[in-house]
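quick one
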Amino acid sequence: MIVYVQTDQRTQMKDITDKVKENLKSLGEKNGLVHIFSMHTTAAVTINENADPDVAGDILRATERLVPFEAGYRHMEGNSAAHIKTSLFGQSETVVLKDGRLVLGTWQGIYFCEFDGPRSRKVHVKVIPDKL
Ligand code: ZN
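structure w/ zinc ion:
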């Protein structure tokens, strides 16, 4: 299934945990693996703390220091920083589904990471059931 994400900033970490959960209900699978895949070259998926919003902000600010927007890149589109950040974070995460619930730690949330927004984005969510 496709989960749609609308971002509203150039770089942004958007908590999509509830959105993923809602979409999983409609599938009816109870046990297996959930694969969450960003279908973009300038946006990623990661899992990190969703209790204190400063954590996501700190991650974005630290990432900006590591990979600044302007650094003499050659890519004509002008968004090389977004491509690099995407490869550093990765396009996907896999979470265990047990008895219909995502197995996440107390402070863990699934984040869609926008690095070249704002844009309309798509995340593909696939359940691989325990019993095929
Ligand atoms: Zn590009």
